[in-house]
Amino acid sequence: MARLVQCVKLNKEAEGLERATYPGPLGQRIFDQVSKEAWQLWLKQQTMLINENRLSPMDPKHRAFLEAEMEKFFFSGGTSAPPAGYVPPAK
User: Cα angle at 51 between 17 and 33, to 5 degrees?
Assistant: First the structure.
């Protein structure tokens, strides 16, 4: 049986993550309060941020930026901002 959580991002009860996907206290909050569906939304957002801002996950400053954006995305009632000048691809 899947673990259910009250997802803070989607504002509904949904299937939770199978394991912590991020270390530390933020990772525990995500595990406890974020659904699989919302995590997938974050992965798309994170990929866009990395690509558009030319970030390196190896750079501590870039990791700190991504962590702050993750915090905003899940727990600040909104979404992280797209990079300046970002134009979404045409559908």
Answer: 20
Cβ(73)–Cβ(51) under 8 Å?
no
Whole-prediction pTM value? 0.84
Q: Going residue by residue through the chain (91 aa), what tens digit of pLDDT does each one get?
A: 689 999 999 999 999 999 999 999 999 999 999 999 999 999 999 998 999 889 998 999 999 999 999 999 999 876 666 677 777 778 7
> Domain 24-75's class?
mainly alpha
Domain spans of the chain, in order of start = 24-75
Q: Partners of 5 in the beta sheet?
A: 14
